[in-house]
Design a protein that fits this description.
single chain; about 290 residues; alpha+beta; five-stranded mixed sheet; 7 helices; about 20% helix; globular; disordered N terminus
Length: about 290
């Protein structure tokens, strides 16, 4: 399989660290869904790849967290392994601003007392097996995150404050809360949460154990396979609901490489295209005017 050469990206990633940014919520009640902006084309994708995905990107990571593909059974650090398979309810722009163009929800609106939130899905979003996403998935997803065994970062918040989920129609659901919460948008987005949308029909068909072995989502990448403690492989979802975010590469391969020096060495040898690394683990570039 052809490997993608990305010397510029490799150079940049030397100074890159994998981080999770948590931003504080608003102190006032949102009146309605912010006007969505058009999602930009993926950054760094060569023009010749903008049409049909091609090539493989290999990334060396220091951790796979718990290496569990069920989002309810890991914290936010688990997004490394499962995040690209699933979609957010409400997305955010690369600048960290809430934007429905990056999530499956078309709109969201609170009641005057912020105890009832109405979510409406975009129509026509498909799971990786071709089944359309619906309000049944919204209801089931929150109930799944509310069960006793769920330990995701936001699962405790859902358990403590979700009263019930009411299905209004095929694409609309209302979340009834026990207490007012004006921070729901941030909690259902990457800003503070890790609540990905999950497929009710697939869980009911294969069960939780089988889902953990072969997860199915609606995101830009499809799960292909893995070797525990070694690698995880994905393929581009060319039918992704947001065409501008279809991956520019055909394959994504994550390698578990705990030792920082080993990751850096692999990057130098061209065995990986990207790595997670702290600045302290690499030698800073020499200033051209530095005394030798």
């Amino acid at each position: 399989m052809r490997r993608v050469k990305a010397p510029m990206v490799r150079a940049v990633v030397w100074l890159l660290a994998a981080t999770v940014v948590a931003l504080g919520g608003s102190a006032c009640l949102p009146e309605a869904t912010p006007t969505p902006t058009a999602a930009p084309a993926p950054v760094g994708v060569p023009a010749k790849q903008a049409g049909k995905p091609e090539g493989t990107v290999t990334v060396g990571f220091h951790t796979f967290s718990k290496e569990i593909m069920d989002p309810s059974l890991d914290g936010a650090t688990g997004l490394i392994v499962y995040g690209q398979i699933f979609d957010w309810w409400i997305g955010t722009t690369p600048a960290g601003k809430l934007d429905t163009a990056y999530g499956v929800v078309e709109s969201y609106k609170p009641s005057p007392d912020a105890k009832v939130w109405t979510f409406t899905l975009k129509k026509g979003i498909k799971w990786h097996d071709g089944v359309e996403m619906s309000s049944d998935d919204m209801k089931w997803t929150l109930e799944y995150y509310s069960r006793a065994a769920a330990i995701c970062t936001m699962c405790g918040t859902v358990k403590a404050n979700l009263d019930r989920v009411e299905i209004v129609d095929r694409y609309t659901a209302r979340l009834h809360l026990k207490r007012a919460n004006v921070n729901i948008p941030a909690e259902f987005a990457p800003l503070e949460g890790d609540l990905k949308m999950l497929p009710k029909h697939y869980f009911e068909k294969v069960g939780a154990d089988a889902f953990a072995q072969k997860p199915l989502g609606s995101g830009p990448w499809k799960f292909v396979g893995r070797g525990l403690g070694q690698f995880i492989e994905y393929e581009a979802n060319t039918e992704y609901w947001n065409p501008s975010r279809v991956p520019g590469f055909a394959k994504l391969r994550l390698l578990l490489v705990p030792e920082a020096r080993t990751r850096v060495a692999m990057l130098k040898r061209g065995e990986v295209d990207l790595i997670s690394v702290d600045s302290q683990d690499v030698e800073p570039p020499r200033r051209p005017w530095a005394t030798r």
